[in-house]
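Subject: design request, 179 residues
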């Protein structure tokens, strides 16, 4: 009938694919890392959505010794995203969820050893952590239609590594397609 057809046409999309670019600060020596993210969001109703997301970032300073320094991060999260004012401010969203983080850092220095004829040796410190924690998200859509969205986001990623700590603060720009 005409009434059911109209309801199908005006129904808003429930699925959104987003990709984003971030500048992330990590507590491991104050690393500033550019990162990429990809996420899928399924809207359960006007108030809440379920959002799995993958994030990755890498930074390298100096590719040869004497100063070698790189840092890599991978995060996989599952969040509940709330639109607390969905009737008046659909552009504002708050999210909370769980996150798995794989963080690694390599740092190298060249130094001289007096034994064996004063040979130059390289030393690289490697550190890897696999952590679980929470992710907290604030999102603001700058531009949004029934099919696309563009916005900015703040993420705080925490972990439990003997103590509860903030691993990363991230600011990002994202683009999404709704279907």
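Subject: RE: design request

Done. Sequence follows.
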């Amino acid at each position: 009938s005409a009434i059911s057809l109209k309801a199908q046409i005006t129904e808003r999309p429930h699925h959104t694919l987003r990709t984003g670019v971030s500048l992330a600060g990590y507590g491991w020596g104050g690393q500033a890392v550019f990162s990429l993210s990809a996420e899928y969001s399924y809207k359960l109703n006007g108030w809440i959505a379920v959002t799995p997301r993958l994030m990755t970032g890498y930074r390298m300073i100096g590719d040869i010794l004497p100063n070698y320094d790189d840092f890599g991060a991978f995060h996989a999260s599952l969040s509940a995203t709330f639109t607390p004012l969905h009737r008046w401010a659909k552009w504002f969203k708050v999210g909370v969820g769980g996150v798995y983080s794989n963080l690694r850092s390599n740092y190298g220095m060249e130094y001289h050893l007096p034994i064996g004829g004063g040979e130059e040796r390289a030393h690289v410190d490697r550190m890897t952590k696999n952590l679980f924690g929470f992710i907290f998200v604030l999102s603001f859509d700058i531009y949004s239609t029934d099919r696309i969205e563009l916005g900015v986001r703040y993420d705080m990623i925490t972990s439990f590594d003997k103590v509860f700590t903030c691993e990363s603060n991230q600011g990002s720009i994202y683009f999404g397609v709704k279907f």
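The chain is about 5% helix and 75% strand.
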